Amino acid sequence: MGEYAAQAKLAVRNAGMRYGDRVALENCSFDVAPNTIVSIVGPSGCGKTTLLWAMSGLHNLTDGQILLDGKPITGPHPDIGLVFQDANLLPWRNLMDNILFPFEIKGQTPDRDWIEHLMERVQLTGFERNFPRELSGGMQQRAAIVRALSLRPSVLLMDEPFGALDAFTRDEMNKLVEEIWMETHTTIVFITHSIEEALFLSDRVVVLSPRPGRVQSEYEIPFERPRTMEIMAGKEAYDLTYRIKGDIYGHQAKKLAEAKG
Known about the structure:
Elements lengths: L1 H5 L3 E10 L2 E11 L4 E5 L6 H9 L6 E6 L2 E2 L7 E4 L11 H12 L5 H10 L15 H13 L5 E5 L7 H18 L2 E5 L3 H7 L2 E5 L6 E6 L8 H4 L2 H26 L1
Parallel strand pairs: 3-8, 3-9, 6-7, 7-8
Antiparallel strand pairs: 1-2, 1-4, 4-5, 9-10
């Protein structure tokens, strides 16, 4: 295990999480290779966010461990960035001050050139002095991505960051994430309820079972980058979507039948 884990950027090993009598995760194991995007999908309540927070070091597992470059994660780590479901911008600070806030907390000097590059990359140049209330939801999430990447993490964890956006904006944000990844090759773990989103973004998709969450299946995504509408509308993408949905809903139906019977 040690040799295999050393080849992974992130290695999840027999991860388990209990809240009193409730088991959220049980015996989860998988690897995230360096410079790849891995999405985690599964039914609501299966422990996706719980697992992501454990990867971030914001809370500890009750069983198992998660390794970063072969070393156990025991708390928040400077090499790990996190983008939440909400942008979590401070309403009394303008956009640039929100982006610089982590540097103030850490007592670090920001790389202004890198931040300006990121701002231009996500098309927020010119909005530096605007307050969150003056920005759309998509613009706020773009600012949250800049804030996370401004510290140059080697791993970026994204917890359903586009779930509250309209379909058109969500597609734009997915394309933006792919473009940024193609430039930076930051290792990304992406939580989503959308199988189509997972297929568009990912090199690999991990499917969790209903609670307690276990790794039910894993899929390598063979599509070349950059990914196009034609690729995602093709038969191979359709077949993968169908198989993943079958894993999720078929397992749910089996669990319900067992519970009733």
